[in-house]
Description:
This protein is α+β, with helices and mostly antiparallel strands.
Amino acid sequence: MFPNEEKDGRKWSLPSWQQLIFLVKTLSLKEKKIFLSALFLACSLFAIWGLVIYFKETDKKPALGGSYTEGIQGQPLYLNPIVARGNPVDNDLSNLIFSSLFHYDANGKLEQDLVQDWERSEDGLVYTLHLKPGVKWHDGKDLTAEDVIFTINLILNPAYGSAFRANLEGVTFEKKDDQTLVLTLKKAYTPFLHNLTFGILPKHLWGDITSDKFLLTELNRKPIGSGMYSFYKLEKGKDGKITSITLRANNQYYGEKPHLKELVFQFYADWSEILNAYSQGQIKGISYIETANLKDASKENGLKIYELPTTRVYSVFFNQQKSAVLADQKVREALNVATEKEELLRGVLEGKGVVINTPFLPNTLGFSPDLNKYEFNLEKARNILKEDGWEILNEKERKKVSAEGNANTLYNAKTKQSLSFTLTVANYPELIKTADLLKKQWEQIGVNIVLDITDTSETLQTKISERNYEALLFGEVLQADPDPTPFWHSNSKQSPGLNLALFDDKEADSLLDQARQEVSEQKRAELYHAFGEIINQKTPAIFLFSPSYLYGVFEDYKDVGVKIIYDSSDRLDDIAKRYLFVSRTRK
């Protein structure tokens, strides 16, 4: 039966509110309890049914709003993408404020930013880039190809001291129209697009600023870009130092708009200040956590620590021109076999990283696990040296030949050499700890290691530029494209080249040259594998480990999902997807 339905000629309807009240009054106490319980159950079931329908018909999605405050050690100097590479703090903020032609996503993949689409000529020399239409600077002006050309000219001018200059040398460029530009290379270079990740400056604001005023203009402190976030305000302390910079979401942004409306970066002198600020709720994230500070950070309430893979690789490079001992390939092989890399990883980085055995990182083009033939085996290392003529001398023999090192240091009667060399290392806690462990490991097979700890970065750079070391413990940062040419080609043996082992092999050079021009990824991988086999055979270095980047964010922030970083600023590559609040919308 339904409301107003007739039965036996009579019209039936729901009882009125007054009739229901009268009915309840006529009930006994027991009947009232039963009635009210039934009514409560019915209402509860109706509410649950409504919630089920609501959740079934709607989706939970990130909502716009909220802010994120991060603590950073250091001070901003120039929020200018042309020179920001010299200061990590500047780089962090510049990457958010300024757009680039290409950039990296949260998975470390190169993707188009300002570029709508692009073409490459068949010979690999000419790149035509088409910009996205309607891109605006934060002041409302249009961004055009003229701004890109202007920025490239600044980079190529040595008066501005841009770190990007080497990436664009020899490249000619022209504007085809307001949205199109053409770049021409002298020689094909497949990873070229990775060189176009620099921020673009607005010509209408910077065009009249000369090189001598370039670092003095207020635009370096209150920048105007075209990126996802725009500059809002800068605050200073009583001592004149900058205490914080606030960015706000760019409402005119052409790409995926962020959920967080505001980002605040607060600057501190040291780790203790940062940890104290988090404990007091002044910040919601910590830009970097050293392994030495990991235990303290892990105790903080709500701080979720992310371990991000990096492309920094620490290795020992052998300078065979400085050390006759290290010119012996059998010695280099024995040192490889006597190196317990897992112990280094645990002892130095508390396991926060990965062991590296080749010039290529895992999951990168050219990597192959079968390239490593130097598994840790002390007995094997001793046998390699013994077969090569290295023996322990008794006290009388040692005095006779004046052998270096202690009583366990090996000596080669044929070459009249002690198994001894100097290992140069920067005065940095993790590197010194690594050097100490290597010294202990290698002493077990009769090698005498003298540690040369450089107190200043200036001294170290002088030694590196002059190649004044026998063995060097040093870290190199690989790029997103795994081109090993800068580190291993014979053209890079002399400073400012990065071939720290002074490796010189014609076949290896040829493979690297071919790979640089090869468009097919499969063929490039094959060329890199062949190159890796040569490195494995020649043993010009010992690859040790790649450290993780440790980064803390308060647990309420969701979708913090960067998979790999090439630079510390890449930890924010996922900032558009992060959110604090949620809402439900109809499916």
